[in-house]
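In response to the reviewer comment on reproducibility (Comment 2.3), we provide here a single inverse folding case reported in full, input and output, so that an independent group could reproduce the run without further information from us. The structure tokens appear first.
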């Protein structure tokens, strides 16, 4: 798949500010050092036989999303340290050529990114070497985040260097809030500052979580369909990224089999899905799995969007319309009209026509008030009710579900034939 380069507005804003405040052009040397830094990451990705699927340039620096055919600790560490390594090579080369400004910019950028605190490259590499939740990388991250913060306070008071203080504060807050991505390089100062230029403030709204059931055995596919590449990106990664990019979704909960928890966690990190809060083990049935996902949501979660992990082409319009409708009515799901004529049969004989305008094919995400769907699923499980989808649990309680606009592109990957069909739709979109 061809890499896509995206330049965000915040980068142009930063560039304009620097041009006004930096008449001597010192920023250009840092820009050159940053370019070599990102080139180092790209080279290591290629050496690990990976493919860069997206490169985003913002005021925060470079953000790469990539796909590796085989995940390993070694490759993750090499990719993380590739940027600082090539930066240090540039420092040595510039020093030998007596180009002090370029050497200094490259040294500062490389050393800063080697600090052992996420999302800096040093913290990324350290996280890869230890099991999730290990106390050592967490302790080092806390120490260096606090160190940068206190050094910044000192610099701000004595030398008006409040920028370092803000960076330390952001790194500290990241640890507390769980914001983490293997793709963000740590140059986050200007991205945060750019928020102050937004004219429209976001309205305070209730917390919304996306629950992604991914506990199926993929019997009809013959292999784990969620890890199959779809135009270079695994199916599940595309599904997660759809909700990662949705401004209405605050958290993502993945529900899967025990043996898939670690691979799916790696996948979420691989593609920078910062909203993934928990990956939990599913139950014996879909209702039990969904209920496990609901129980893993943050306590203040009010609404949930339940979406099949195998529907990777869901659009932002479909997601947002369903969520918005659920916030108004308590329950909503996207539907599409049926294209074929529908017949009622009995004993192998057609006995009647069924009006197509009275029926539709339901899709996901199916969105609900969290308390409503939790109660509905518990009662359905207790009664041993056979449910065709999550809407059926709510319908048992006598609650009507609002129908929103679905999309024929929002197909479910179920059989091998669905992969080329989905790729054709992606290429058609491009």
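Designed residues, in position order:
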């Amino acid at each position: 798949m061809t890499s896509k380069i995206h330049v965000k507005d915040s980068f142009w804003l930063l560039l304009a500010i620097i041009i006004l405040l930096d008449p001597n052009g010192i920023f250009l040397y840092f820009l050159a050092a940053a370019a070599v830094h990102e080139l180092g990451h790209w080279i290591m990705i290629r050496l690990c036989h990976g493919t860069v699927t997206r490169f985003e340039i913002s005021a925060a620096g470079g953000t790469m999303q990539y796909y590796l055919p085989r995940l390993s600790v070694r490759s993750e560490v090499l990719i993380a340290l590739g940027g600082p390594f090539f930066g240090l090579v540039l420092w040595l080369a510039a020093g030998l050529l007596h180009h002090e400004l370029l050497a200094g910019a490259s040294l500062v950028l490389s050393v800063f990114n080697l600090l052992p605190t996420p999302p800096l490259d040093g913290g990324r590499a350290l996280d890869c070497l230890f099991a999730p939740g290990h106390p050592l990388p967490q302790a080092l991250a806390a120490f260096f985040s606090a160190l940068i913060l206190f050094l910044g306070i000192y610099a701000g008071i004595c030398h008006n260097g409040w920028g370092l203080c803000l960076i330390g504060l952001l790194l500290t807050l990241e640890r507390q809030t769980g914001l983490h991505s293997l793709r963000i390089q740590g140059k986050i100062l200007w991205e945060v500052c750019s928020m102050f230029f937004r004219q429209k403030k976001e309205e305070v709204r209730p917390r919304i979580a996306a629950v992604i059931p991914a506990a199926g055995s993929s019997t009809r596919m013959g292999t784990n369909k969620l890890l199959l590449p779809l135009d270079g990106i695994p199916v599940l990664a595309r599904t997660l990224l759809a909700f990662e990019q949705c401004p209405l979704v605050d958290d993502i909960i993945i529900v899967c089999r025990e043996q898939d928890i670690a691979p799916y966690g790696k996948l979420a990190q691989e593609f920078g899905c910062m909203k993934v809060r928990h990956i939990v083990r599913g139950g014996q049935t879909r209702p039990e799995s969904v209920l496990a996902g609901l129980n893993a949501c943050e306590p203040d979660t009010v609404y949930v969007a339940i979406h099949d992990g195998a529907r990777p082409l869901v659009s932002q319009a479909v997601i947002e319309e369903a969520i918005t409708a659920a916030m108004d009515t308590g329950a909503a799901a996207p539907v599409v009209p049926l294209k074929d004529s529908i017949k009622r049969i009995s004993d192998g004989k057609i006995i009647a026509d069924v009006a197509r305008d009275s029926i539709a094919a339901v899709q996901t995400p199916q969105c609900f008030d969290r308390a409503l769907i939790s109660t509905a699923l518990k009662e359905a499980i207790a009664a041993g009710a056979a449910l065709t989808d999550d809407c059926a649990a709510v319908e048992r309680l006598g609650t009507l579900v609002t129908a929103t606009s679905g999309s024929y592109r929002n197909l479910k990957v179920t059989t091998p034939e669905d992969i080329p069909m989905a790729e054709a739709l992606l290429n058609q979109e491009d």
